[in-house]
Amino acid sequence: MGILGRLREDIATARSHDPAARNRLEIVVAYSGLHAIWSHRVAHRMWAAPLLRFPARVLSQLTRFLTGIEIHPGATIGRRFFIDHGMGVVIGETAVVGDDVMLYHGVTLGGKAPRGAPRGAKRHPTLGDGVTVGAGAKVLGDIVIGAGSAIGANAVVTRGAPAHSLLVGIPAVAKPLSPATADAARGLHDWHI
């Protein structure tokens, strides 16, 4: 998919998740979550070239300053990723985010590694396709959250969970996720796509 196609897809994703999104121009100009994602794509490409890693870090920090969203350029982010409200989101270097993932403000995909782990070892979570993470939730360590799962607001998740789980509490406990709860968590709206 070309750059314009990806931009259109990102805008459509924002419209489908946010009922306050009135038109494409507003989304392009006023959605800091999209600005952070677009900047991350540039920084991630730079990160692949060892000589461009420092500028990539500078770009990610500049983006953090402008948007309040910190995505390390080494993080792997899937398609149709949406950050609602954005401010305070942190995504670590070895995090992997699947397609159709949605984060609310204040989410941390943070690192946690055993003592003596080598530099560069995977230490951040992997979120499967379609995972939703509620406001203020912390997902820590090299764990896998299965596809279609939802993490409740302010949960602290330190253990992986199978697909279609609902994770709530501190520390978070996994339960089966009902379809109605999944739809409510994602805030999907079809009426203006």
Write up this protein:
By secondary structure, the chain is α/β, with parallel strands linked by helices. 32% of the residues lie in helices and 20% in strands. The protein contains 5 helices and 15 strands. A 6-stranded mixed β-sheet has the order 3-6-9-12-14-15. Strands 1-4-7-10-13 form a 5-stranded parallel β-sheet. Strands 2-5-8-11 form a 4-stranded parallel β-sheet, with no helix packed on it. The longest helix has 16 residues, at 32-47.
Topology:
Layout: H1 3-17, H2 24-30, H3 32-47, H4 53-67, E1 70-71, E2 76-77, E3 82-84, E4 90-91, E5 96-97, E6 102-104, E7 108-110, E8 126-127, E9 132-133, E10 138-140, E11 144-145, E12 150-151, E13 156-157, E14 165-168, E15 173-176, H5 179-186
Parallel strand pairs: 1-4, 2-5, 3-6, 4-7, 5-8, 6-9, 7-10, 8-11, 9-12, 10-13, 12-14
Antiparallel strand pairs: 14-15
Secondary structure tally: strands: 15
Shape type: globular
Note the gap between the termini: 20 Å
What fraction, in percent, of the residue positions are helical? 25-40%
Strand content: 15-25%
Total helices: the number is 5
- Mean pLDDT score, rounded? 92
Spatial sequence of strands, sheet with the most strands: 3-6-9-12-14-15
Give the low-confidence spans. none
Structural class computed from helices and strand pairing? alpha/beta
Report the sheet with the most strands, covering strand number, pairing sense and barrel closure: 6 strands, mixed
Overall radius of gyration: 16 Å
Pattern of helices and strands = HHHHEEEEEEEEEEEEEEEH
